[in-house]
Amino acid sequence: MTTAHLRRGDRRISPVFLGIAAVTAVTGWATWTGFAEQPGVAVFLFVTGAWIVSLCLHEYAHARTALHGGDISVGAKGYLTLNPLKYTHALLSIVLPVLFVIMGGIGLPGGAVFIERGRIRGRWRHSLISAAGPLTNVLFAVVCTAPFWLDALDGVPRDFRLALAFLALLQVTAAILNFLPVPGLDGYGVIEPWLSYNVRRQVEPLAPFGLLIVFALLWIPAVNGVFFDAIDAILRSLGIGEIDTYCGFELYRFWQTDELCAVSP
């Protein structure tokens, strides 16, 4: 019933998103076929494009779930067009996640779309709205790792395989970080409706700093080791080895080379 209140333009896919998807498709083809003279450049554009597409779909999942939960304002705000320029904080949603991929090979949670929570009724709906975004990253991770856990790598070119492995790493890290029950992240949004009013009130001031707290913790060597050991364990269970993700990251950063990856199969 809520979709009846939307104008047609509120649901039309943005040319900006279509352009990003087109770049991803073309550079993915170039990576697969070896058409590009500089394979690293093609991998860089393919992974970056696919990462931005996943960020857009992450936010779209929040918005779409909120729409069906009762917040019809998401249409007028442009959240259903998949246009990243419509997000509340374009810098936090797109620029910073891409920079963190380039610098550290980690899937930084993006965000955000502004949901008018007062329009949503029911704790389960609030939790589902928060969970919808990181579940999109989980789905992306399943798709990226499918050739590995299905043992369907025959005929898959090396560069494309490494690009998929690195992209899977980004999706898994994004899903795990987003699901952490830290104020300001989606994981906390899942459990927040079930907390008492006093607890929510005490925790609320921490929300703007939640992501900073997480990354401050990741600077602690012991915490960092446990986190990435967990990531490696998940990827190994899906058929992706550490050498695949390492060399995928090195290939992505085409401006530097690693002899180990240059000779790896």
From TrEMBL:
Q: Does the keyword Protease apply?
A: yes
Tell me if Lipoprotein is a UniProt keyword of this record.
Answer: no
Membrane topology note: Multi-pass membrane protein
Q: Where in the cell is it found?
A: Cell membrane
The GO biological-process annotations, alphabetized, read as: proteolysis
Q: What cofactor(s) does the depicted protein rely on?
A: Zn(2+)
Which superkingdom does the taxonomy of this entry point to?
Answer: Bacteria
Which GO-annotated molecular functions does the record name?
A: peptidase activity
Q: Which residues cross the membrane?
A: 12-32, 38-57, 90-115, 127-150, 162-185, 205-228
Keyword entries, A-Z: Cell membrane, Hydrolase, Membrane, Metal-binding, Metalloprotease, Protease, Transmembrane, Transmembrane helix, Zinc
Q: Which family does it belong to?
A: Belongs to the peptidase M50B family.
- Designated name of the protein: Site-2 protease family protein
What organism is the protein native to? Streptomyces plicatus
